[in-house]
Amino acid sequence: MRALLRDVCLLLLGLTAASSRVRLPPHDQVARVARFVAHQCDWASLATISSHKPVVGQPFSNVFSVSDGPPGFGSGVPYMYLTRMEISVQDLEVNRQASLSMSLAQTDYCHQQGLDPQSPLCAHIILSGSVLEVNSTEAEFAKKALFSRHPEMIDWPSDHNWFFVKFNITQVWVLDYFGGVKTVNPDDYYQASPNNKHK
Ligand SMILES: *[C@@H]1O[C@H](CO)[C@@H](O)[C@H](O)[C@H]1NC(C)=O
Ligand SMILES: *[C@@H]1O[C@H](CO)[C@@H](O)[C@H](O)[C@H]1NC(C)=O
Hints:
alpha+beta, globular, single chain, 6 helices, 7-stranded antiparallel β-sheet, binds 2-acetamido-2-deoxy-beta-D-glucopyranose, about 25% strand
């Protein structure tokens, strides 16, 4: 059964490689750019407010695997697979407000275009919001989203009591061009299509 699940995941990974040729939307279609970056990135930097000495109350940034959906089926909602044993997750239990950032520097895009990660042309997004546990219905989607792109998760030790969460976005910040940061509200973000030409 596990072997079968793994084969399905590897197949989906093959599809990721095929879909990575999809083009970055035009920079003025900010919501689409944000959805594109959110779907392309397999990991993100998650900043919490630390609950740990000696930095209680200070920002604490850490790396997490994310997925907003199987390749080609991005929902815009970043899902994560967490355990309460993890230091940042302990912060979230005190204060679930957090910030998540993702950059095309994590893909081949910026390197191939000769763009430095700090260049606004190397599109990156910062999400503000909070981390919420998902119900069993949404957890089914979160599982497909994450396990298709992070097949190793299938074998993570079960005694760590892993659970699925989503990053509940309250504001999207986009750096994809000169002239400063742009914002997108969650409704426009979720309605935008990262791929097709019409939205
Ligand atoms: C589960 O959460 C989703 C997304 O928030 C919501 O649309 C759905 O109604 C919830 N389902 C149940 C059974 O509570
Ligand atoms: C989730 O985000 C929406 C905005 O998209 C916001 O209205 C809502 O209050 C947030 N929920 C929680 C529990 O933070």
